[in-house]
Predict the 3D structure of the following.
Amino acid sequence: MAPSAAPQRIVIENCAIATVDANDTEYASGYLVVADNKIESVGAGQAPKGLENVVRRIDGTGHLVTPGLINTHHHFYQWITRGLATDHNLFNWLVTLYPTWARIDEQMGRVAAQGSLAMMARGGVTTAMDHHYVYPRNAGDLSGAIIGAASEMGVRFTLARGSMDRSVKDGGLPPDFAVETLEGALAGTEETIDRFHDASFDSMIQVAVAPCSPFSVSTELMKQGAELARRRGVRLHTHGSETVEEEQFCKELFGMGPTDYFESTGWLGNDVWMAHCVHMNDSDIAAFARTGTGVAHCPSSNARLAAGIARVPDMLAAGVPVGLGVDGTASNESGELHTELRNALLINRLNAQHRERALNARQALRLGTYGGAQVLGRADQIGSLEAGKLADFVLWKLDTLAHASIADPVTALVFGAAAPVTASFVNGQQIVENSRLTTVDEDAIAVATREEAQRLARIAAQG
């Protein structure tokens, strides 16, 4: 057997480091050594002497190094419908926009994915996910287009292959032509798993089973979707307890609240994570903690749609895994996850019970890194800077005017203005340099975004 090639190393030195490990280990001035696609060592002071095959050294003076940010809930297609229905609650917003979303096609899906991914990646996201559930008839290969965009950009990615089979005629919200049949949704989801899911340690692409929500999906699709996911060994994702209206809908239709309904359909467990979970009582939180069910907290979207304030401090105290989500850019037009660190902290302090003790800067950073890895089922691979984990990390520039008087770098990152990303690495490969993507042409994506948004608007106007 031929000997394996010696690993190539990247060394980052003279930087502050927040590892977000189990002990929240931090270094005021430290180093990070990457060997191929994994972290080899991290510590205080200078890197070890005598390292071989060092192909690059980075002087991190004035920077904070953290794990890459991990987005746990998004709808990429909404990138080309931003700025619409800006004064609506969730149900009215959905009813207004579903007829437009139902006209998307493969080209629109690809461009929307490129735009959504670009905004996140240039702001420190190294692992993204997309909950795509709109599969109009004859729209082309939407899943392939989305995954292709992620692969081109070089981000680690989970496609939550969504579905809807409860349309207006069945008491749901989507138009009849925007949903799939039960059989079609299940077959399309399993085909996506067959084509794309990679369960390996350093996987760049994974797939989850993700019926959209209780008010757009039949009970049978929920049950059979859970059975499919567990038969194939993939994770499960959906929306849950986002608004008061959803809770009322579940009680009227199913005779129980959302959490009890999810449990009755097999949708609680340590392989499940749900978006929003704003309206959770003590019993709901206890059920999530008991089963290990995760939550994607989307503070900006929840505020934009006036959904409410999720009880994140109570969830964390109970042991519920919680990560952060951008959510679709039709309800969070900025499309950036790093702003969610700050918004999660600030919005949760408006909770009358917890106030200024709700979250602190390091808890917010953990939500956006290790917490995200937990809910995506990848906490042994990403989410913290530890030897043996994958080399997904960000260098945040904190020595400019914007952060000049904030002594603590984690406080500067979370409380301060959005910090420039000097460099972002995924799997040991650099994808951002000086806040610009290195793998794709941002300007071309911007042009394509405008063109596809205009094309979609024209098609939707024609009915």
